[in-house]
Automatic annotation (TrEMBL):
Domain of life: Bacteria
Membrane topology according to the record: Multi-pass membrane protein
PROSITE patterns for this protein: ABC_TM1
Signal peptide coordinates: none
Similarity comment: Belongs to the binding-protein-dependent transport system permease family.
Keywords, in A-Z order: Cell membrane, Membrane, Transmembrane, Transmembrane helix, Transport
Protein source organism: Halomonas cibimaris
Protein name: ABC transporter permease
Transmembrane parts of this sequence: 17-41, 62-83, 146-168, 188-211
Amino acid sequence: MSGAMINLIWQATLDTLYMVGISGVIATLLGVPLGVLLYVTRPRQILAMPVAHQALSMVTNIGRSIPFIILMVAIIPFTRMLVGTSIGINAASVPLTIAAVPFVARLVEGSLNELSPGLIESAQAMGATPWQIICKVLIPEARGGIITALTVTVVTLVSYSAMAGAVGGGGLGDLGIRYGYNRFNPTIMLITVVILVIMVQGFQSLGDYLVRKSDRK
């Protein structure tokens, strides 16, 4: 394998990590609060707002129901307006983030659903405000589940980023399509798959470690 090809593989790997990193961070910052809102605005919850809950739930469901490849194409005008282009790693990060936010939100909501209602009742009995219950009871108690949710999201983003390469998104998916599939080079295709598998294993192992560490606290 030539030095130029090794450089291409290395750059594609960095591009994939960049896309996953950027979209993962933004999706966390937006998706975790959205998931908490979905939980606390339910009927008979601490901030019960049935109408707001229904609206948030509907938007989240719509976001989750659109296949990623269709989402990428559908929001091209928005992507171009936001980053100035519809191709490349920055452009691919936009649909990756939009696809990940509702995914994170539902997983976080599911983690909170597993908590015992008695925790909230005990906090309310002690005079805690809704904000204190969210920050000092719900999120700390669901920390392990939230970390697991974020780990699943990052692993999903790795596969989505590879899919983005099929339509000019860059990264390992783009490398595998252009040099592996189009040029009939099975070695490049295999290397691309192996790197993606290593990434997934690495992110999953890191997530499992953080969950174990949080459970000991």
